[in-house]
Please model this.
Amino acid sequence: GTSGHEQLALVRLALKRLDEGTYGECMHCGKTIGLKRLEALPWTPYCIDCREKIENGEIEDPVVAA
Model:
């Protein structure tokens, strides 16, 4: 599960990305994150494909690594 601290960091990141105009784009592949996914997880920085790859350990999570 996502810790409160991690979730807060993701929310801050989402707000920063709103300011920059990059909100709603996957931070890993640059594709648009699906609207249903954004409604469910408004702070998510990744599309569903990249999120699954991160969870499977196929790619590194740059947000957590940062």
Q: What stands out?
A: Residues 4-20 form the longest helix (17 residues).
